[in-house]
Amino acid sequence: MVIKGKVFKFGNDVNTDDIISARYLSTIDPKELGARCMEILDPDFSKKVKPGDIIVAGSNFGCGSSREHAPLAIKGCGVSLVIAKSFARIFYRNSINIGLPIIELKEADQISSEDELEVDLGLGQIRNLTKNKTYHAGPFADFVCQIIEKGGLVNWVKSKAIKNEQLESKNC
After folding, report:
1. In this structure, how many other beta carbons lie within 10 angstroms of the beta carbon of residue 167?
2. Measured between alpha carbons, how far is 101 from 97 in angstroms, rounded to an integer?
């Protein structure tokens, strides 16, 4: 899976309340959450971001509470990928569970706002088209790529269950 988009840059220790304020947690609708995504750090973020764009951040992205609303908000506003030096562990898992790809990259600070990136998740290759630089991160495991392609863990499990039912019905 290849993702291409413009970078929106954030710093270290971006917490889940920075991503989506607790006052908006009465919904789980990704579009509603996306309209308020990152508004504490950048009030116009959701108006500027376009589908496919990429967030790049420093260390400890997604720290704070373990709410799924944070990656839902990011995905809901159209962001296709988050790259950071490091992620809070529960945010990392929640992101994969809802189908939002995230990549740890120690050189994330070398990427600037407005840079254009092309990222191959299967190879773990990040090409900065603006600066003509290439970075390497660990590639996603095949099953993680499948989870993301299906739109999250629930959809992935459902697709596996349907395949199993089809196999069982053929065996009769």
Report:
1. 9
2. 9
Q: What is the DSSP letter of 15?
A: B
Mind listing the pLDDT tens digit of every residue in the chain (172 residues)? 899 999 999 999 999 999 999 999 999 999 999 999 999 999 999 999 999 999 999 999 999 988 899 999 999 999 999 999 999 999 999 999 999 999 999 999 999 999 999 999 989 999 999 999 999 998 888 888 889 888 888 888 888 777 666 656 665 5
**Greatest C-alpha distance within the chain:** 59
Residue with tokens 């929640």: 94
Burial 124-156 (b: 16+ CB within 10 A, else e): eebbbeeeeeebebeebeeebeebbebebbeeb
- DSSP letter, residue 71: H
H-run or E-run covering 4: strand 2-9
Give the other-Cβ count within 10 Å of 92's Cβ. Answer: 18
Q: Which residues pair with 162 in a beta bridge?
A: none
Reading the block at residue 90, the tokens are 């529960």
φ, ψ (nearest 5 deg) of residue 72: -65, -40
